[in-house]
Automatic annotation (TrEMBL):
Keyword set includes Membrane: yes
Protein name: Transmembrane amino acid transporter
Lipid bilayer topology: Multi-pass membrane protein
PANTHER family registered for this protein in UniProt: AMINO ACID TRANSPORTER, AMINO ACID TRANSPORTER TRANSMEMBRANE DOMAIN-CONTAINING PROTEIN
Chain ranges of the Amino acid transporter transmembrane domain: 42-424
A Pfam short name: Aa_trans
């Protein structure tokens, strides 16, 4: 199959930018290497497990208790491991695509899309990645400003939006991620510390006399969208694989990490829902009883710090992708002018990510992440890997693998549509109730 792809010449317009594209790919690869802390000698198995875990654990876990409320505890506990299994299979599909291509032909996720479907495939993956990362940044911005409003009631969320517009713009001046390695590690420690404290706070608050439902089919799509958002690390699968010294151990490392993430996520979501029942709030930090306010304040402070750092790390590839657009590169003849244009673009992107925080969406964090997960999260985690694998690896795959890929797409495409529609309806209904 690959020989057929290779025989088809690329459009002349795409070939004319081949040099710029190769430069852009090298810069993106270098940025991703800095993001995951790759050593020049190659990452060991423990490092790969840590980096993979780091790429998946983020703010998505904070929406899971509300997700369990929407899906029911039994249905959620059954479906979460299945979703992890399907996601893991799709990631292995992606790695298989990379392995069957000549070395250096597909060093990034968008490159694999280009090999399979030409410029359309490249931009399909690139736009999906950028949209997903911007959507994640929106949820990060919303979480930070909403929790700061709770911490400091004298200042409204809109004021915090303006303050962090300045904070994130100043952080965007950091053009390299080399200096943020320690901050990235601190952010992950703070996320885990915040989750542990949050869990302690919920346990100390005590079990409320609220019913818990085992199955909730009517609102289950909302849970599924939140779960899809939780797989934030799909865009770093290829960079982490590239960084590995002994690549044959990548799949076992991935399976180990996904198993741990599955246990962590399921345990956290189920425990919180078990204790809070029908009173599980959309923003889980609001569930801690007033007498344990020190736990809530410490938890919120840790998570706000961690997600502020994570915002910059997640937004950085988006900044670089816009910097490398031909219209931006060619319109700036001097380095100073390019820097000014780059800063303006970053400011505009940050402003876009602040939009949900100043609209009715600001009180509905789980619904927002559900919509992001149901659209671009599902596309990146399930649909696109399945399509790429069928196209590139058709000859190399046996009948069973082809059937599994077709089943993956048969499940993922309708699920993405249903989840998106139901989550949007849920969001509209919640906004109406709030008014």
């Amino acid at each position: 199959m690959y020989s057929k792809i290779e025989d088809h010449p690329e459009p002349q317009a795409f070939q004319s930018h081949s040099h710029e594209a190769s430069i852009s790919r090298r810069q993106i690869a270098r940025s991703n290497s800095q993001l995951i802390g790759v050593s020049p000698k190659g990452a060991s198995v423990p490092n790969v497990i840590f980096n993979t875990f780091k790429s998946f654990v983020g703010s998505g876990i904070l929406g899971l208790p509300y997700g369990f409320l929407k899906g029911g505890w039994a249905l959620s506990l059954i479906s979460f491991p299945i979703t992890c299994l399907i996601a893991g299979y799709a990631m292995v599909d992606l790695i298989h695509c990379k392995d069957v291509l000549p070395r250096g032909k597909a060093d990034t996720f968008p490159d694999i899309g280009r090999v399979a479907f030409g410029p359309f495939g490249y931009w399909l993956v690139q736009v999906s990645l950028l949209a997903y990362q911007i959507g994640c940044c929106m949820s990060y911005y919303l979480f930070i400003t909403q929790n700061l409003e709770i911490l400091v009631p004298s200042m409204s969320q809109q004021i915090w939006v303006i303050i962090f517009l300045s904070v994130f713009t100043m952080m965007s001046f950091i053009r390299s991620l080399k200096t943020t390695g320690i901050l990235s590690m601190m952010a992950n420690v703070c996320v885990l510390g915040g989750i542990v404290l949050l869990l302690i706070g919920v346990l100390l608050t005590g079990k409320k006399p609220q019913p818990i439902i085992p199955f909730s089919w009517s609102s289950f799509p909302v849970f599924f969208g939140i779960v899809l958002f939780a797989f934030e690390g799909i865009g770093l699968v290829i960079p982490i694989h590239n960084s590995m010294e002994k690549k044959k151990y990548y799949v076992p490392a991935l399976v180990t990490t996904l198993a741990f993430v599955c246990i962590l996520y399921s345990g956290f979501g189920f425990t919180c829902y078990l204790f809070l029942g029908a009173g599980t709030p959309e923003m889980i930090t609001a569930a801690i009883a007033p007498q344990y306010s020190w736990i809530r304040i410490t938890t919120q402070a840790l998570l706000i710090f961690a997600i502020t750092i994570s915002y910059h790390l997640l937004a950085h590839p988006v900044y670089e992708a816009f910097d490398e657009l031909p219209c931006i590169r060619k319109s700036n003849t001097s380095q100073t002018r390019h820097w000014l244009w780059s800063t303006l673009i970053r400011f505009c992107l940050i402003a876009v990510s602040a939009i949900p925080s100043v609209t009715p969406l600001r009180k509905h964090f789980p619904d927002l992440i559900g919509i992001v997960g149901g659209t671009f999260g599902a596309a990146l985690a399930f649909i696109i890997p399945g399509l790429l694998h069928l196209k590139i690896c058709w000859r190399e795959c046996g009948v069973l693998r082809k059937i599994l890929d077709i089943l993956l797409l048969s499940f993922a495409i309708p699920a993405s549509i249903v989840v998106t529609i139901f989550t949007v309806i849920s969001l509209i209904n919640n906004i109406k109730k709030a008014h």
